[in-house]
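Summarise this fold before class:
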Amino acid sequence: MGISEMQPISIRKAALSDAKAISELGTHVWTQTFGHTVSPEDLKTYLTTSYSPSAIETDINNPSKDLILATTPSNEIIGFTLMTKGSSENCLASFTNYVELQRIYVHPDHHGCGVGKMLAKAVEDLARQQGFENLWLGVWEENAKALRLYEKLGFKAIGTKEFLVGGQIDTDLVMVKRL
């Protein structure tokens, strides 16, 4: 189903009342995408730390973070993105005035419909409005689908960073886009 065939998608900032639905979506997408790469114990710990309703509420209340949603006309949350100010990586030393696109998740039923592009545009617009010049992200080096999307959106790989889940260390590519 192409985006023109879908119901209209709305983009809005998250509210505390959205925390449970965001938690469920984040848990579902992370588990489906990465769950097979970690032990069940590490998966449970990571999801509790990062995607529990209370963790999502903390993100929504954090003034250094902006959580943006993609919703259907019935207000079903089908995607979200998290922009984080103040995060850094060593390979960003030659860049100034940057902000992190920490998460961009779309429910698998809506992949290929343009929702990810809509969320990326929303976070880019917000970053520009807040005066940032560069947007960076870390993406698992084995997530080919996400890498293709980010490259199409104009992100360029500039280095790597470690991503730790439990005792497992994975490598993320660090990518940057000039806004």
